């Protein structure tokens, strides 16, 4: 560690990136979720760039699962104009334990905590302003969603103070959900039990509330998506490509598709719906890709149709195959005219023969 002469920052950010990302398997068997390519760059690059553009350059990454991958890619963070510190949990400590585990690395009195898989458009400075103006000990970003039943609901009173934490309920009293971004006074982090797994949502926040502590909500309706499932990952990636989701890491024109350098797209192939084609990938003639996420080095042969699906690194999709709402793992080969639909997941390296899986009988 080097010492610096500069004053301690007012605000530091902590990004929690230590989860196993089970819902995105098999892609997360080889890469941690925040490092999966999203609109052409690791997802985490979008988040780090947003934090940097809000004027916060001192960022701690709370790692655990595949911790080394982050350091190998980002190093000290200078390429992105930030200073990165890594704090690793030998055994995953959960979201609350992950926050507690970085306590010794914190020098700022105010700590912005992010789940490392949230794609958002919220003005981060406004969340900090709410925290300062309300005098709260913790402020939570709450976002209004159409259907809150799948999320943790967080009602607030007329002053914006949090009144309850309701885990996934069928009859939510509010459409405000926990958006996975928090502002903590550093002292509160010291109160989280150390050395064991703790959930910030299920344990830390309910306990603070039961003690009558001041938790404030910052409510808005900005773009927000938790990228934890294949459906959300595909949607979020497409929204980035089309400019529906903002990201300072994506310069230039937004359109129906994004093709990375070194990729080859044959004449007559159709790329729509926010499709991304990774570096060195090859798309054959008359292939039709709608909302597809094609990782680097993958091959899509002539006439294949890929809709709302993720095709892993170096995977191959055979001629005339139909791939819809599916995840194909790294290096897998899907034979010609196979049909994979509705949540299918092909494990890495698996080889499906020509016509090997079909939903129709017209072979
Ligand atoms: P699933 O297994 O699919 O639920 O994904 P996940 O492991 O990422 O869990 P979840 O989506 O609930 O995690 C929210 C955020 O917290 C993600 O950015 C995770 O990387 C992070 N996270 C989850 N558990 C831990 C942990 O034990 N330690 C650290 N440091 N981060 C965690």
UniProtKB/TrEMBL annotation:
GO function term, MF aspect, one: nucleotidyltransferase activity
Source domain of life: Bacteria
InterPro entries attached to this UniProt entry: GMPPB_C, Mannose-1P_guanyltransferase, NTP_transferase_dom, Nucleotide-diphossugar_trans
Positions in coiled-coil regions: none
Family annotation (Gene3D superfamilies): Hexapeptide repeat proteins, Spore Coat Polysaccharide Biosynthesis Protein SpsA, Chain A
Assigned keywords, A-Z: Nucleotidyltransferase, Transferase
Domain Nucleotidyl transferase per the UniProt entry, residue ranges: 13-240
Protein name, as recorded: Putative mannose-1-phosphate guanylyltransferase
Keyword Transferase: yes
Taxonomy of the source species: Bacteria, Bacillati, Actinomycetota, Actinomycetes, Mycobacteriales
Family: Belongs to the transferase hexapeptide repeat family.
Domain called Mannose-1-phosphate guanyltransferase C-terminal: residue spans: 255-353
């Amino acid at each position: 560690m080097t010492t610096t002469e500069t004053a301690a920052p007012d605000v530091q950010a902590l990004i929690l990136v230590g989860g196993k990302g089970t819902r995105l398997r098999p892609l997360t068997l080889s890469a941690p979720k925040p490092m999966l390519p999203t609109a052409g760059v690791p997802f985490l690059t979008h988040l780090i760039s947003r934090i940097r553009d809000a004027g916060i350059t001192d960022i701690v990454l709370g790692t655990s699962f595949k911790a080394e991958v982050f350091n190998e890619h980002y190093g000290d963070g200078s390429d992105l104009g930030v200073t990165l510190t890594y704090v690793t949990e030998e055994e995953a400590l959960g979201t609350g334990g992950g926050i507690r585990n970085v306590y010794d690395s914190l020098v700022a009195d105010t700590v912005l905590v992010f789940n490392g898989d949230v794609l958002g458009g919220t003005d981060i400075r406004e969340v900090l302003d709410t925290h300062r103006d309300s005098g709260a000990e913790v402020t939570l970003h709450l976002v209004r969603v159409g259907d809150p039943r799948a999320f943790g609901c967080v009602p607030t009173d007329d002053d914006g103070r949090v009144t309850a934490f309701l885990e996934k309920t069928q009859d939510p009293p509010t459409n405000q959900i926990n958006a996975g971004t928090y502002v903590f006074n550093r002292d509160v982090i010291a109160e989280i039990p150390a050395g064991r797994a703790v959930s910030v949502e299920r344990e830390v926040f309910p306990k603070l509330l039961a003690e009558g502590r001041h938790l404030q909500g910052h409510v808005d309706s900005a773009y927000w998506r938790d990228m934890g499932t294949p459906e959300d990952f595909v949607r979020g990636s497409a929204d980035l490509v089309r400019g529906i989701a903002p990201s300072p890491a994506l310069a230039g024109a937004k359109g129906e598709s994004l093709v990375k350098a070194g990729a080859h797209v044959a004449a007559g192939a159709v790329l729509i719906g926010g499709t991304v084609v990774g570096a060195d990938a090859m798309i054959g003639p008359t292939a039709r890709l709608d909302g597809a996420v094609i990782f680097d080095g993958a091959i899509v042969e002539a006439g294949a149709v890929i809709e709302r699906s993720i095709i892993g690194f170096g995977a191959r999709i055979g001629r005339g195959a139909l791939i819809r709402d599916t995840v194909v793992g790294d290096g897998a080969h899907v034979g010609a005219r196979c049909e994979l639909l509705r949540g299918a997941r092909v494990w890495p390296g698996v080889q499906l023969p020509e016509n090997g899986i079909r939903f129709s009988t017209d072979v």
